[in-house]
Structure formats: structure tokens, C-alpha cells
Amino acid sequence: MPAMGFDHVSRTHVGCRRKLNEDAFLADADRRLWAVADGMGGHDAGEGASAAVIDAIACCKAQGAIAEVATALAVALKDANDRLIVLGRSGEDQRTIGSTVVVLLANGDEYACLWAGDSRAYRLRGTTMEQITRDHSLVQELVDAGMLEASEADGHPNANIITRAVGAAEILDVDRVTGDLRSGDVFLLASDGVTRLLTPAELAQEIDRSDLAAAADRLIEMVLARGAPDNATLILLRAV
User: Fold this and answer.
1) Which end of the chain is more exposed for a tag (fewer CB within 10 A), N or C?
2) Which residue in 56, 49, 55 sits closest to 78, CA to CA?
3) Could you tell me if 38 and 233 are in contact, meaning their C-beta atoms sit under 8 angstroms apart?
């Protein structure tokens, strides 16, 4: 079948409280590859970590079936993990220098999504908004254990504690999901600076009623209006 095309827009903002933007992103419609990374580590370390993760994704030139490319991207992320581990141990004050990441790859009528941490991917198909990633976070573990309602997760005091990230541990486990791709599907990739302040219903409403650029602008405006305590980054893309 003919390769599907994509319209896409991206936005990033430092937010209202941070001095540095430690988010980074990749939006490459020609390669049908998009990613958002949210760095951590303090000072310029988080900024460097997210940039290193995005660079690893951008430098992965694998081609072929979507499963093969997704596997190559996972290997690239694990290589980035190794480099960030070494970097974190190189100074006198050894620390964790890492980044969450969410990656979306499309090929033909399929997509693959890879992630580590709590940067998320959603798909809007018709009127149905579906979160296709699952947070690697303490509150998600509490939800899974039945100790916390899903509706309480984003507002929980420990919502910022993640359990997986590139650079956080010796071994990186990259989660992956695949699915079918249809014309009209809209995907949202976002750092938690967006998704912690806006509900899935709010995200779907803005995406559904606006063109992509207007929707992206409106979502950032909403995040800023709510105080934007963290950096906010998002990518919107539509299969056409």
C-alpha cells in the first residue's frame, strides 16, 4: 500500500518556574519518526541527558520492517543509557543523569511506540482517546496494586517519582507496543509537564476541534495558565 503521509507540529516551553528547558524532541516526518525526552539531573545535566537521548534516536539509521527498526532504536537507547551512566559517575559528586523518553515510529499501516519513564503517547481515533504508553512511576505501581485510584495519580504528592529512565540504572528495559495505523489517526507525544496538568479528556477536546497548530498552541496556553511548574513539550501528528 502507498506510504501514509503525516502532518505534524511541535511545541516546547520552559514553563513558569524553571530556568532551563530540560526537554528535547525529534520530529522527522520524512523518516516517520518522532520522540520526546524529559531530562533530569539538575543544572545542565538534564538538558544534556535529553539531548543525548534524542541524538541517539536521530543517529539510528536502521531501515526495514517496523519491528527491525524498533529493535534498533531500543538498542540505540540502551547505548545512550550506558553513556549517561558513565557520565554520571565521572564527576566527584556522582549522580544520576537521565531522561525519560517516548518514541513513535510509523511504517505503512503500522506504528510502534517505545518508552521509558512517564513521557506519554496518546492516540485519538475518531472520538476515542487512548493512552498507548503506561507510566513507569511510583504512582502507577500504586494504581496497579489497587492502592490508588487512577484518577488520583497525576495529583499525587509522589507523582514525579519515576521508576525507569534512560541513564537511571545499569540495565535499561524499553517497553514497546505496536498497533494498526489509519488515516485520520492523531497521536500526541508529551512530557509530563503537559500531561500532569491536562486530563485526557481535555487533551482530546482540544485536538479534536482544532487544526494541529491551533491545538498545540492552545494546549501550551492551558499549561501556562495552570502555572506550568515544569517544562512542557508536545508533538501532534496526524496520519493522512
Assistant:
1) N
2) 56
3) yes
**Residue 179 has which C-alpha cell?**
498497533
Grid cell listed for 163: 521508576
| pLDDT tens string 51-110 | 999 999 999 999 999 999 999 999 999 999 999 999 988 877 778 899 999 999 999 999
pLDDT < 50 regions, the chain = none
CA distance 133 to 175: 8
Which helix (H) or strand (E) element contains residue 178? strand 175-180
Torsion of CA 39, 57, 108, 123, to 10 degrees: 0
Nearest by Cα to 16 from 232, 234, 233, 227: 227
| Per-residue cell: 68 | 527491525
pTM above 0.90, yes or no: yes
Q: In what order do the strands lie in the sheet with 128-131?
A: 6-13, 232-239, 186-190, 120-125, 128-131
